[in-house]
Amino acid sequence: MKKNAQTGRIRFYLIILGSPLVLIFLSIFLGRYPISVSTIFSLLLSPFTGLAVDPTDLSIILYVRLPRVLLGAIVGGSLAVSGAAFQGLFRNPLVSSGMLGVSSGAGFGAALALIVCNDFFYVYLFSFGFGLFAVFLCFFVGRMAASTQAITLVLGGVIVGSIFSALISFLKYVADPFDELPAIVFWLMGSLSRAEYSQILTAGVPITLGVVGLMIIRWRINVLAMGDKEAQSLGIKVNITRIFIIVCATLATAGAVCVSGVIGWVGLVVPHMGRMMIGNNNKDLMPVTFCIGACFLVIVDDISRLISSSEMPLGILTALIGGPFFIYLLKQTKGREW
Amino acid sequence: MAILTLKNAGFSFGDAVVFKDANLKISKGETLCILGPNGCGKTTLIDCILGINTLDKGELTLDNHQMKNLSVKKIAQKMAYVPQKHVRHFSFSVLDVLLMGRAPYTSFYESPKTSDRDMACDILNTMGLFHLKDRDYTHLSGGETQLVMIMRALIQDTPIIIMDEPTAHLDFKHELIVLETIARLVKERNLTLIMASHFPNHAFYLENEGIPIQVAFMNRQRIHLAGTPSVALTEENLASFYKVKTSVIDLKLSGKGHIKHIIPIQTLDNKIGQ
Lengths: 338, 274
What we know:
By secondary structure, chain A is mostly helical. Chain A has 13 helices and no strands. In chain B, helix 4 crosses helix 5 and helix 5 runs parallel beside helix 6. At the A-B interface, helix 8 and helix 9 of A face helix 2 and strand 6 of B.
């Protein structure tokens, strides 16, 4: 009996950890430019077979589809895992990865760059920089209450977030309505359409640092969920651990947002899909949440690519696709993990 | 040999003095029961002992070390804490909650090992609560939750356990179950127990069970060590401390020996608070 439970568990892990890889592989077959399955296979095997391939097909698979799918996976995973970390840290299941103003700060930075110089390098730079700056401001607001207590930080996040939202509205108001405004609006709805390997590298550094940091500290997030006083009596340096988690989650989120724009929903609801599947123990939850987030965004992006010739922004599809799936999961598990 | 001492200790929140000139000395294997009315600062005192609040004045020594020189981790290897009311945010399994008691022995990048799991299962077994192992702890009753908190403290493997009103919010039977468990564990493991309580009868209960116990009264910024319950909890002291007229009875039960118990009769003034 116990043995069965154990093999069942191992099987679940293999499926959940392997599924992003399978989906990444399958997704390179999908796209609006017609390349047949057999062409893709011969193309993938060409290094071994030595057969000649069509350079257009090759560049679409290798430089358009593959980087985009890979970027989708790491962005989805890192948003989901930072959301799970923040939910544990703030002991609140309604918190998302944008809790401390990262997303609105990054959105403001991107909008500013789109108006000022309209060069995508500066869009990444500004959105990443303002994302971090927003979180720093939250700390500053929290510090006014002479503590880094969770509630003052959350309050700081709400306030800083709404200030940046107002600033984004201001930029939209002054933006050129024929050129800049659509670019800003489109960016704020999130997209992976500009994916390149260079982006994977730039975003990959903060994302890797953040996600690896969260994976290292993940069991301690359980202990923090017991409350500050109990966590300290269990030997945890509460403030330092909390700052470490915030820095990691912020790096991961800002890294993701600066290349993909604001993709809502993933950092709020995907962790709950994980909670329903595996439970609340962050030791298991964090890796599982990363994989679900990766799969989820890859699937959503596949649909966004296929659904119409002008791509649907991801921010629209995440909720439209995720919502029914979430309800289905709720029905299957009866929400027993709450 | 004192395992924990407070010397001329004082603590205040801003201008509000919670206690001052407090002197306490607790020996290994001894229990200290801190009695006092609502709002007298028992919880604040416990937070000071746990190192969550830092004393303004005086000093606290733990196992011959100055408290302020000890790391949070070292303190957690010496003192475990059972909260008055544990607030549950996420549904963890009972086993997951117990394993958190191993946090003082795990590095920041680690999670509990198989040996820690075995330890948790052992404790569940000896407490006769193995059936709770995989249960969702947010679905437990108040009494069961309190026992889980006590087990988490046990797995922390510390010489000292601190309990803040361990039987608050419990029904008649569960209150007794928790007290019986505490008495048994203190005896079996030679634990040093610091316990805040609203109920002077709890001090008598532990004394009746043969546990070396002292009573400290806490009120109006003062903490007064008053000796064993038999010495401290006299009708006169209870009248002057609680402003309650009582009768202390001494019952001889076959097989149980003498059992002392306080019967409250009536209040001596009708003031609420201190």
